[in-house]
Design brief:
- The chain is α+β, with helices and mostly antiparallel strands.
- It has one domain: 2-Layer Sandwich (Tetrahydropterin Synthase, Chain A).
- 47% of the residues lie in helices and 29% in strands.
- It is built from four helices and three strands.
- A three-stranded antiparallel sheet has the order 1-2-3.
- A hairpin with a 6-residue loop joins β1 and β2.
- α2 crosses α4.
- The chain is elongated, with a radius of gyration of 18 Å.
- The N terminus is likely disordered.
């Protein structure tokens, strides 16, 4: 895959075509999130510990992300708090939660800034107990 990208880049430069590359930035929601989720029974709750990186559409948006980080943290905590144990503990559930977080954060940033600003959400640490 990397070789193919290198060849395509070389081909475009040789032919005089400069392909504009997107420049992304990454923003960490610090500190990592530790919150609870719905357990397998009404008397039991679980806990999840997640480190989240946000892929921003542009490095110029880092300051905007920093400004809105408390709001984004609260939104992700809300997402995890509404999940059932089966979702949190399965790989497909984790991907579903990641997509829910992405859509919720994009909607939130669209409302707050007029632009989605977030390209992707990445869980770099994901522990549950």
């Amino acid at each position: 895959m990397t070789i193919l990208l290198a060849l395509l880049s070389y081909h475009n430069v040789v032919n005089g075509q400069e392909v504009p590359r997107k420049s992304y930035a990454y923003f960490s929601l610090e500190p990592e999130i530790v919150t609870n989720y719905l357990g397998s029974s009404a008397k039991k709750i679980g806990f999840v510990r997640v480190s989240i990186e946000l892929m921003l559409e542009n490095p110029d948006l880092l300051e905007v992300a920093e400004h809105h980080s408390p709001l984004m943290r609260a939104a992700t905590i809300e997402v995890f708090g509404s999940q059932r144990a089966e979702e949190v503990r399965s790989l497909s559930g984790r991907e579903n939660i990641r997509n829910i977080c992405l859509k919720k954060l994009q909607k939130l940033m669209l409302r707050e800034t007029g632009s989605k600003i977030i390209k992707d959400v990445i869980f770099t640490k994901y522990l549950y107990f």
